[in-house]
Amino acid sequence: AAAEKGGFDSFMDKEIHDQPHAVADTLLGRTDAAGRLVLDDLRIDESVLRAVNKIIVVACGTAAYSGHVAKYAIEHWCRIPVEVELAHEFRYRDPIVDERTLVVAVTQSGETMDTLMAVRHAREQGAKVVSIVNTHGSTIPRESDAVLYTHAGPEIAVASTKAFLAQITAAYLLGLYLAQLRGNKFPDEIAALLDDLRDMPRKIQTVIERGEYVRATARSMSSSDKVLFLGRHVGFPVALEGALKLKELAYIHAEGFAAGELKHGPIALIDEGQPVFVVVPSPRGRDSLHSKVVSNIQEIRARGARTLVIAEDGDDEVRDYADEVFWIPKAPTLLQPLLAVVPLQIFAMALATAKGLDVDQPRNLAKSVTVE
Ligand code: G6P
After folding, report:
1. Using 50, 70 and 90 to split pLDDT, how confident is the model at 83?
2. Ligand 1 pocket check: which of 16, 369, 372 to mutate, most ligand atoms within 8 Å of Cβ?
3. Is the pLDDT of residue 194 over 90?
């Protein structure tokens, strides 16, 4: 087993370190000689894909959060409404689905029963299903109209890390493919976005190399009993995933909130010393989201929170209000989740390790849940 872990203490640690490759491999071979996106394993008639008027992403757990990230990108690029729903909720609420609905099922294992049932239901209603799957030969791709494989390699640790980054990457590819097909974007715009994506593995590697500071912080926080996570826009699903990782690995009560929601409730939770992670949007992004989130940091700090901030290199404004800053390289706003989630994964793993827990096999969880 030591050899399989490639010299790392755990599969989780190895898989976190695998992430630059997981993203790079998922991007590999997706363009033709002319630089146009080709998704070989996407076998749905182009005319059907052009007519799609709604996308519903169905998934569970971490995979569902990749869908939340994808929603921001696909709606922005393709101008198609995207809903994201937990597969088990979708299946049993009589969802509105028809021939013009594209259902995107996201799953690492390809075997999650809740997701499979959602896929079957969607197809019975006439929808086309594209699955984004990591495991070749699994059930969900067999039962889908098309599959877009992530190439993260086998993921052994129960809590998902590299599959998540690969899922986001694959969902971006799907979004760009649809934008290309439907003429929402010029070829050079798509090429530029693909270049940005191809630049991400290097930046992810940088975040991993900065991991020791995150680990040290986590070790100093091993007695925390409640941790909050705030994010806005694509940082919101990152906050949800950061909280999930901490629950799964360290058995700590953790909640992710949309930063804009703070004043509508969660701020009541803040008291002296309360640790709060905040994912800060790029200062170069539009709509002044950056300054709104910086104000949130000031608000919670004024109420005693210990602020653990994930911010872009060079974002000097956050420094004054942060107890700790975990710096990530600059990236286009929509791609930031591929970087911002990494310190949160490392934090959860290191804190769990400091508590003496088995990070690869958390209690009560299964890698793949094959019952409803
Ligand atoms: C289980 C795992 C999670 C995973 C979820 C969905 O609950 O413990 O890590 O995110 O299933 O799994 P899937 O294979 O469908 O991505």
Report:
1. very high
2. 369
3. yes
- Residue 37 CA to residue 170 CA, distance in Å, equals 12
Of 276, 279, 265, the residue nearest 69 (C-alpha): 279
Q: With contact defined as beta carbons under 8 Å apart, do 166 and 26 qualify?
A: yes
Averaged pLDDT, 155-174: 97
Mean per-residue pLDDT, 219-227:
95
CA distances from 11 to 17, 33, 109, 149, 369 (A): 10, 37, 16, 22, 19
Q: pLDDT at position 43, please?
A: 79
Q: How far is the CA of 52 from the centre of ligand 1 (A)?
A: 28
Distances (CA, A) of 120 to 92, 124, 129: 12, 6, 9
Q: Which ligand 1 atom is at minimum distance from the Cα of 135? A: 14
Band (pLDDT 50/70/90 cuts) for residue 85 is: very high
Report which residue type is found at 327: W
Q: 23 CA to middle of ligand 1, Å? A: 19
First to last CA, the chain: 31
Query: Angle 56-60-66 (CA atoms, 0-180°, nearest 5)?
Result: 65
Strand-pair partners of 307: 276
**367 carries an active-site annotation:** yes
Q: Using CA positions, which residue lies closest to atom 2 of ligand 1?
A: 367
In angstroms, rounded to a whole number, what is the distance separating the alpha carbons of residues 257 and 239? 7
Contact 71, 81 (CB under 8 A): no
Distance CA 169, CA 102 (A): 18
Give me the phi and psi of 107, to 5 degrees please. Answer: -160, 130
pLDDT of residue 139: 97
Q: Tell me what ipTM this predicted complex has.
A: 0.93
3-class DSSP state of 57 = strand
DSSP label at residue 264: G
